[in-house]
Amino acid sequence: MKKDDVPQDDSATYQGQRKLLYAVDNEGNYQGVTSTGWEVESFATQMAVDDLAQQTDQALAQAKAGEVSALYYHMLNLRFDICSLAQTTGFFQWQIKRHFKPTIFAKLSDKKLTSYGEVMKLTIHQLKELPTSND
After folding, report:
1. Is 34 helix (H, G, I), strand (E, B) or coil?
2. Quick one: 65 and 20 in the same domain?
3. Do 22 and 33 touch, CB atoms closer than 8 A?
C-alpha cells in the first residue's frame, strides 16, 4: 500500500487512537504511517466482538440451566479460550473441559479454584456465582 492510500476512516473501534501501519513512500521505501482506522477493519472487528458477546450470552444461559459450570461462562466473558486458560492456569485442556461439568466443578478444591481465580482476577465466591444478566 502506498503512503497516501493508508485509510483514515476515523474508526469507532480505535476509540480516538491511531494505529501504526507500514506503507511505501514515493521512493519505494517502507515508512511508518499512522491511521485513524479503516471501515472494513472496523466492521470485521465489530462482527467478532458481537460474536463473542453472543457466545457469552449463550454460555450464561447454559450455566443457569445447569448444562455447564460457571467456569465456562467466566472463561468466555473474560475472553479466554480453553488453550489460553490452560496456559495461564497450568491445567491441562482436558481437565478444564472436565471442570465445565457442573458436578465436577462443584467438587473442585479451593486450591484449584484459587488457580482459576488468580488468572481471572476473581474470588472463589465470584467464580462460583453467575450474574443475573450479561451486561
Report:
1. strand
2. no
3. yes
Residues 31 and 58 in one domain: no
> In this structure, are 87 and 58 located in the same domain?
yes
Torsion of Cα atoms, 40 then 44 then 47 then 49, to 10°: -120
Nearest CA to 59 out of 70, 48, 49 is that of 70
Global pTM reads 0.78
**Residues 17 and 82 grouped into a single domain:** no
Domain that holds residue 13: 3-37
Q: Do residues 22 and 55 touch, judged by C-beta distance below 8 A?
A: no
Distance CA 48, CA 50 (A): 5
pLDDT digits (tens, 9 = 90+) for 29-81: 898 888 888 888 888 988 998 999 999 999 999 999 999 999 999 999 999 99
